Structures are given as C-alpha cells and as structure tokens.
Amino acid sequence: MDFRLKTLLPDYEKAFLTCNLQKGKEAEIQQITEKMKALRQHYETVEQATGIPWWFAAVIHYSEWNFRKPNLFVKKVTEVLLAKEFHKARTRTLGAYLWGFDLWDGFRHGAGEESEWVWAGTTVLKTPSNRIGAAAIVYYLQSQKIIDIAKPGTGIKVKILSDTVFKARPDQSFRLKPEEKITVKAGTHLELIEDEPADGGHVKILLPDGVLLGQNNQSNWYVFKDHIAIEGSEPNNRPNEAAEEPETKITSPNQGRPITVPKLGTVYLGNSILEGGHFSWAEATKNGARIPVNNEVVEGILRVAQVMEEVRDYLGGAPITVNSWYRDPVTNRKVGGATKSRHLVGDAVDFVVQGISPPQVNRRLESWWGSRGGLASASCFTHIDVRGYRARWSYGF
Predict the structure, then answer these.
(1) pLDDT tens, 282-313?
(2) Which of 137, 101, 135 minimizes the C-alpha distance to 3?
(3) For domain 156-231, is the CATH number 2.30.30.40?
(4) What is the pLDDT of residues 27-54, one digit of tens each?
(5) Residues 247, 270: contact at Cβ < 8 Å?
(6) pTM for the complete prediction?
(7) What CATH code would you report for 258-394?
C-alpha cells in the first residue's frame, strides 16, 4: 500500500468531514481533553521546540503513556519528533496531522479509514474498538473551540511560492534577530486564520493552533507578498447582496444628491469616482447609504475604481453592474461577508458583466489579474479586490 501523504491525504480529509463521535463516547473523551488541558504547559514545551502543535503531543501522551510522567514524556517525544523530522513537514493542515498520527504509529493500526489509532471512538471506524483515537479527540477539541484549526476544505490556506522568511515584524531580514524569523521552504501549505496587507510590501498573517513555525509561540507573522498565495476563504463568507439601481446615472445632467466623504469633502452621487470614468459614487456607497468612515476607505474606493475601469476595458467595454462595493461592518455582517472582508476598507467590488457569465469573467480575468489582489468566483457575480497579493477562492454557490 502507498502510505505517502499525497496519496492518502484526500482520504483523511473526506473522513473527518463525515466524522461524528460514537454514542456513549463523549464523556470519556471529555475526561481525556480535560487532562490534556491541565497538562497543556508541558505540551507547549514540545510545540516550542518542534513546531508541532501542543494537541498533537497531548494525543500521543494519552495514547502511549496514559498521561504518565509528563516531564519525561516531553523530553522523549521532543527527541523523537526532531529525529523523525516531523518539524520539517511542509503541509500543516488538519488532514495532514491526522495522517501524521498514523505515521507516528508506523501505520500499525491501519491507514486512512481503516486506522484504529486515528478513528476509534468515531463513526468513521466500522470495526468495534474500546480505544479512543486521535480523530475523536481532535473532533472534540475543535467542537469545543479549544483549538482553532479549520476543517478540511473549509478554511484559508497560504501556499509558499518560493523560499522565504517569516518575520516577527515587517522589516528586512538582516535586521531581525534569529528568534524573530524563520525560513519556510517553497511548496509549504499552512492553515491560516486571516491575512491583511502590511508595510514594506509584506503581508501580515495570523496562524491557528497547529501551525506554529517558530520557537517563541509566534502566531502573527509577516512575509513578503510576492512569495505567497492565499487559497480559500473562511467558512461563513457567503455574501448575498443584490445590485441597486443608481439614483442618478453618470450620463445625466443632474449630479444627484451631495454626500460628504473623508479626504475629498463633498461629492455627488451621480458623479464618476474618477474623472471620465464609468463608476459613480452612488454605486460605491449604495446610493449614499454607506458613507466612508475614514480616509483609508476613500483611498480603497479610488484604487479599486481604477481597477474596475481596467476590467471594463479588458472585457471589451461591456457594461458592468455593481452588486456590492463599500460595506460598513453592520451591513457586512447582514449580507454574510467575511469578518475581514476587503469591502470593509472599500477596495473590493462584487460585479456582473453584461453578456458574460460570472464563471467566464473569472476565467478571463485569472491570468490578467495575477498577484495584484483577490479574485473569487460565484455563479451570480465575480469578486475582485486590490489587497496587493494573490488570493483566490470560490464562494461555493
């Protein structure tokens, strides 16, 4: 049998998505996790030395040592993890860690859905077992929000495109102390909680439990924007907002109602955002219902307005309908936007192109947009944003 990660990873991911705890097992699993939480400081010592998440070490401590001699366990498991080079793993996702438990066990209890070591105590394992496997514990930890690593296929990932350095602050690497940086190899895939642009051409990323790379409990890192690509989006990112007819069109001699926005002062809803452009302040502000709150939002609107003019030209000048542009936080929650949506800073637009289906628009813009920002597909609109680095996802509808 081929036990390699690239072969078995889909099996572990699919199994976890259909996983539930077996009836009557939850109380026992709760007791196990309470003991893990009580000993967490020991497992964090392993995490700091190896980059392997504390809960991975905790499961091994329970499964092989029954929580005995925690100090000795920390010493032994750290030595073995480093010797087996677990800390050099390039795919640090939940599915990969489940496979990693079987790897640790030498696949003695099976692999994939056949593994008692991983799936005992869950509905995935069909053969009766008195054990509590790794997946049952991880499932419970996740359901209780004790760990925040995403379920397979539901979270954000960062792909490292070329060898790079993760930094504790956005500065040139030679200015940082050794403990403030760590080298990450090309081809590495990491789970991600959120990302945002940072100074000096960097991206600030927040990593969840199980993706610790350094030896100082660092969770916020900075990485050069051209060295990464963001893949996927948070599970609750399902925006649902219909287009609204502008009160006053740009072609009308009536400029429409005036609104006051930071940076620019008074503008009129019927005016184009850019001189001679095709997109109005009415479209950017939902007919004046969403007034930008600060200069950053206005600057975002201006940046993406220029991009929308480029998109229009690139697609042959076809008319474009704006579904959603700037969103204030309350509106963003109401329409189902991501918690860190680029619409909140004004530099994102959801739109429809007349005569071209959204999937076709997405395909045509893919290579053209490249690493300039985010591009996302849905059946009923296309999303584009100017965050300044590559991000791609599908809304799933």
Answers:
(1) 999 999 999 999 999 999 999 999 999 999 99
(2) 101
(3) yes
(4) 999 999 999 999 999 999 998 888 888 9
(5) yes
(6) 0.80
(7) 3.30.1380.10
